[in-house]
Design brief:
- The structure is a homodimer of 252-residue chains.
- Chain A is α+β, with helices and mostly antiparallel strands and 252 residues long.
- Chain A has two domains: 82 residues, Arc Repressor Mutant, subunit A, CATH 1.10.10; 150 residues, Chorismate lyase-like (Chorismate lyase).
- Chain A is built from eight helices and ten strands.
- Chain A has a six-stranded antiparallel beta sheet with strand order 4-5-6-9-8-7, sandwiched between helices. A two-stranded antiparallel sheet of chain A has the order 1-2.
- In chain A, helix 2 packs across helix 4 and helix 3 crosses helix 4.
- The longest helix of chain A has 14 residues.
- Chains A and B meet through strand 7, strand 8 and strand 10 of A and strand 7, strand 8 and strand 10 of B.
- Strand 10 of chain A pairs antiparallel with strand 7 of chain B.
- The first copy, chain A, binds a DNA duplex (19 and 19 nucleotides) through helix 4.
Chain lengths: 252, 252
DNA sequence: CAGTGGTCTAGACCACATC
DNA sequence: ATGTGGTCTAGACCACTGA
């Protein structure tokens, strides 16, 4: 009964071949994307949403459960459903795949900001971030240490169209996590990264920063990071010494 | 009512703090592991399982849905629920993360078996596969080509305790997919792999097989593969030319 | 205490497979 | 025609949270 009601009343769900819970999920994702509920904030309860969409609680629940399994929202029994945030209880370094051979994550302690600049994106970056040729952006160079030895150098590019003034702001604050900065400053939540790993020899400057011989192979990780909604936000090159460090990955 | 019934009757579920659907899931996983239903075979319907466990269909459904989301079983509307198999509709190369820079997967066409031998596992392998020191096994060396150029050399170790006669059988058949072979020959379904990626210089023999200079950096992927139940089954080293090839990974 | 998500039940109708 | 999984409903009780 309710089913036909839901299809004929003035709620935002259109009649379609898609299951209702999928339509609800898409609509809720859209509402999160457009900032109706900001990261860290609470969503209406299942009961309220069910009333709003004129569906049963179980149908709304299935929509929210899928969003939770994708990490978009976090559910806490007795409290409510929250938009996930790199701030809150969500792990900030979940995208880092570099580990020392003894098993520790190469984390953000001992990160040094080398310098920043505003520059035009080269062809490679334009292709990765889907930018118009010659688009401008901020470039940040950083150095990370592990056990008091230089471990990796990072080059980060953020397009000016999405992240204005990023270079200056980052220089002022030097945050440990760029993704936390992106969320707080521009309301951009990184949910997915694509990485391409290669072996090569370091450039002269890379070798000097990493304090290695220029004939020592290094690991190059080229990363493109995407925000909610699938927009490419950040491009990054990580060059790492691979003597006592590796890139770790689990596939299931 | 049924709830207390389920806890007091002679079904395999023990009273515990765990949700019933979790207990059902664990028991079903155990039944798959012990070979009650083999890869490719059909499970009893939700209705039957619900009757067997004296629970509602919805509870059993939730258990099966979790198994399906983990890839252990595959559900087909109108037909039934099947134990997933590398044979069936399941993708055989889902663990391969090496791509040519033009985007194609470095697949199993053009795979050459170089040689095989029976040998004792070295310390590194024993640690990875959790074997007793000096345990024996089969070692297989293979070469893959891409665009008529040597692309990567593989060293594969399979412990004799789990995979007896693997060297001779592989030499006879030279299958494209080792994991399909493991499933068909030993009923071992690989569900998870752990990979560690490093950059290094090739050995003299690797360089000659790959037809590269010994000063050209190569990508080394060290992989441990686990079967259903979490037993480490295979250890593998993949050494790849990284000129026109990369290791690709997506994290979300 | 009332409200939240977490679990569980028992029904319903549907599209699809098989015979 | 029958049986399967896929969707949807409308209730129930629980444990946890916070005022």
């Amino acid at each position: 009964m309710k089913r036909s009601l839901a299809k004929t009343t003035m709620n935002p769900l259109k009649p379609s071949a898609q299951p209702l819970y999928q339509q609800v999920k898409e609509h809720l994702v859209h509402r999160v994307l457009t900032g109706e509920w900001l990261p860290g904030h609470i969503l209406p309860s299942e009961t309220r949403l069910a009333a709003e969409y004129e569906l049963s609680q179980g149908t709304v629940r299935k929509a929210i459960e899928e969003m939770a399994s994708e990490g978009l929202v976090t559910r806490r029994a007795g409290k409510g459903t929250f938009v996930t945030s790199h701030n809150g209880d969500y792990q900030p370094f979940r995208f880092h795949r570099l580990y020392s051979d003894s098993g520790e994550k190469v984390a953000s302690d001992r990160v040094t900001l080398l310098h920043t600049r505003v520059t035009a994106a080269d062809k490679r970056i334009c292709a990765a971030l889907d930018l118009a040729p010659g688009a401008e952006g901020s470039e940040i160079f950083r150095l990370r240490r592990l056990h008091d030895r230089p471990a990796l150098v990072e080059t980060i590019f953020l397009p000016a169209s999405l992240c204005p003034e990023a270079a200056t702001l980052l220089e002022q604050r030097n945050p440990g996590s760029v993704y936390l900065f992106l969320e707080q400053q521009y309301n951009l939540l990184i949910t997915r990264v694509l990485e391409q790993v290669r072996a090569r020899l370091p450039s002269a400057t890379e070798a000097s920063y990493l304090e290695i011989d220029q004939n020592t192979p290094v690991l190059e990780v080229e990363r493109t990071a995407f925000s909610l909604g699938g927009i490419a936000v950040e491009w990054r090159i990580i060059v790492g010494v691979t003597e006592s460090m590796h890139y770790r990955n689990e596939v299931s």
